[in-house]
UniProtKB/TrEMBL annotation:
It comes from Eublepharis macularius. Residues 23-35 have a biased composition (Basic residues). Homodimer. This is NAD kinase 2, mitochondrial. Keywords: Acetylation, ATP-binding, Kinase, Mitochondrion, NAD, NADP, Nucleotide-binding, Phosphoprotein, Transferase, Transit peptide. One of its GO terms (biological process) is NADP+ biosynthetic process. The gene is NADK2. GO terms for molecular function: ATP binding; NAD+ kinase activity; protein homodimerization activity.
C-alpha cells in the first residue's frame, strides 16, 4: 500500500486532494512567486530552434504526377520533414495540473492518490524521448531539414512547409498527423516510439523504431511501395450544425464541457444553418462516429445508404469506417466471440439435426472466418457502416445493421449529438443537421510499405 505524507493520509481522497492544492498554494505565497513545473527531464529539442520562418507554400501539380516526387531509381528523398511527437501521459499530467503550481514531488503524490505509477510514467516518457531523438538525429545525419512539433504547434502552415510528415508516437499520433494533410502527394509515415505499450498498427514495423536509418535507406533505394489509404470526406447542411470543430486531442472533456465548447464555437462562427452542402476541412482515416454525447441516451436519426430510402432508427450510435479503420473500433463493434458461435451452432444442430463435431477447432475456425470477413484493404474505395445496438420495434427498424456502402446520408433527430472524426475532432450534429458521408479517391493518404 502506498505510504502518503501526513497531510494526505486519512480522510477521503477528495479531502486529500484539497490539502495537496492548499499546501502547494501556501508554499507559493511563502516564496512570493508563482511556481511552475520544472523542465521536463530530457526534454525534446525546441520545436523550431535555429530554423527559418516557413516559406510560401510550394504547389505540386496533380496532373503532372500521381505520386510524390522521386529520385532516380524510384527512391524518395525528402529535403524537409516535420516530426509530430505525441504528448506522453507524463507530459499530459504535468500540463493538467500546471494551474495549481505543483512541484514534481506534489505531482508524484497526486498520481499515487489516483493509483497511477509516477516512476512508470516517467520511464515510458524517457523511452519515447529517446526514440524521437533517434529519428531526428537520423534525419539530420542525412542533411534533411527537420522541424519537431507537438500537437498544439502542428498546423496547416507547418504541413505545407514539409515534403513529408513523420508521426512519432502511436496510432493516435498517426491519426493526428494525417488529419492536417489534404495533399495526396505528401507522404505520412508513422514511427512507434513506445512499442511495448502501443500497438502501432499504422506505423512502420517495430524494428525501425531503433534502426530508423535502415528505413531511410529503403526509401532512398526505392525498396517500398506507396500505399494509398482511402479516407472519408464529410458534407454538412441544414440546421442545428456548427462547422467549427472542437479538437479533442489536447483535452479530455466531460460531457458538459464538450457541449459548452460546441456552444462557444457556435457563437464565434454565427452560422447555425447552411442551405447547401458544406465540405468539412477534415478527412477520416479510421472512422466517423455519430451519436449522442451522453452515451446512456439513445441516438435518434434517419439514415439512407447508397441513395436508398430513408429509415428512422434509434441506436447507441453509428460508426462508418474505411479499410484502415476496419481493424479498429468497427472490428470490435462487430466481432463475435467463441462463446456466441458455440451457442448458435448448438441451436442449429438441435433444429437441423446437423452432424457437426462441436469441438474447439471448429468453433475457432468459424469464429475466425466471420471476424476476418469484417476486414478489408485500406486501399479499397468503400466504407463499412455499423449500427450499434439498434432498437427494433413497431416504430423503429434496422433493415441492415452493418454492411458496405459507397455513400451514407444521416439526418439528425438528436438532442445533444456530435459527429466525431477519428476520435479527435468533434462537430455538433443536432436535430435538422444532415451529413453526407462518402469516399473520394482524391482524398487518399499517401503512406509507405517497406520491403522486408
Amino acid at each position: 500500500m502506498t505510504c502518503l505524507p501526513g497531510f494526505l493520509s486519512g480522510g477521503s481522497p477528495c479531502a486529500a486532494l484539497r490539502s495537496l492544492f492548499k499546501s502547494s498554494r501556501r508554499r507559493q505565497h511563502h516564496h512570493h512567486q508563482q511556481r511552475r513545473f520544472p523542465s521536463t527531464p530530457n526534454p525534446l529539442p525546441a520545436a523550431s530552434a535555429g530554423l527559418p520562418a516557413c516559406p510560401s507554400p510550394r504547389r505540386l501539380c496533380a496532373d503532372v504526377s500521381s505520386e510524390p516526387p522521386s529520385k532516380a531509381g524510384g527512391g524518395f528523398r525528402p529535403s524537409r520533414v516535420v516530426v509530430v511527437a505525441k504528448t506522453t501521459r507524463y507530459e499530459f499530467e504535468q500540463q493538467r495540473y500546471r494551474f495549481a503550481g505543483l512541484s514534481e514531488e506534489d505531482l508524484k503524490q497526486l498520481l499515487a492518490l489516483k493509483g497511477s505509477n509516477y516512476s512508470g510514467l516517467l520511464e515510458r516518457h524517457h523511452i519515447h524521448i529517446k526514440n524521437v531523438e533517434h529519428v531526428i538525429d537520423s534525419l539530420r545525419n542525412e542533411k534533411i531539414e527537420v522541424r519537431l512539433v507537438k500537437r498544439k504547434e502542428y498546423n496547416e502552415e507547418t504541413v505545407r512547409w514539409a515534403d513529408a510528415i513523420i508521426a512519432a508516437g502511436g496510432d493516435g499520433t498517426m491519426l493526428l498527423a494525417a488529419s492536417k494533410v489534404l495533399d495526396r502527394l505528401k507522404p505520412v509515415i508513422g514511427v512507434n516510439t513506445d512499442p511495448d505499450r502501443s500497438e502501432g498498427h499504422l506505423c512502420l514495423p517495430v524494428r525501425y523504431t531503433h534502426s530508423f536509418p535502415d528505413a531511410l535507406q529503403k526509401l532512398y533505394r526505392g525498396e517500398f511501395r506507396w500505399q494509398w489509404r482511402q479516407r472519408i470526406r464529410l458534407y454538412l447542411e441544414g440546421t442545428g450544425i456548427n462547422p467549427v470543430p472542437v479538437d479533442l486531442h489536447e483535452q479530455q472533456l466531460s460531457q458538459e464541457q464538450h457541449s459548452r465548447a460546441h456552444v462557444n464555437g457556435r457563437f464565434q462562427d454565427q452560422r447555425s444553418q447552411i442551405s447547401e452542402p458544406h465540405l468539412l476541412p477534415v478527412r477520416a482515416l479510421n472512422e466517423v462516429f455519430i451519436g449522442e454525447s451522453l452515451s446512456s441516451r439513445a441516438s435518434y436519426y434517419e439514415i439512407s445508404v447508397d441513395d436508398g430510402a430513408w429509415e428512422k432508427q434509434k441506436s447507441s450510435g453509428l460508426n462508418i469506417c474505411t479499410g484502415t479503420g476496419s481493424k479498429a473500433w468497427s472490428f470490435n463493434i462487430n466481432k463475435v466471440a467463441n462463446q456466441a458461435v458455440e451457442e448458435v451452432l448448438k441451436i442449429a444442430k438441435k433444429y437441423e439435426s446437423l452432424s457437426l463435431p462441436l469441438n474447439k477447432e471448429l468453433i475457432q475456425k468459424v469464429t475466425n472466418e466471420y471476424n476476418e470477413s469484417l476486414l478489408y484493404s485500406p486501399e479499397e474505395p468503400k466504407m463499412f457502416f455499423s449500427i450499434r445496438e439498434p432498437i427494433s420495434n413497431r416504430v423503429f427498424s434496422s433493415s441492415r445493421q452493418r454492411g458496405f456502402a459507397s455513400k451514407v446520408c444521416v439526418r439528425s433527430r438528436c438532442w445533444d449529438a456530435c459527429m466525431v472524426v477519428d476520435g479527435g475532432t468533434s462537430f455538433e450534429f443536432n436535430d435538422g443537421a444532415i451529413a453526407s458521408i462518402l469516399i473520394d479517391t482524391e482524398d487518399a493518404l499517401c503512406t509507405v510499405l517497406l520491403q522486408e
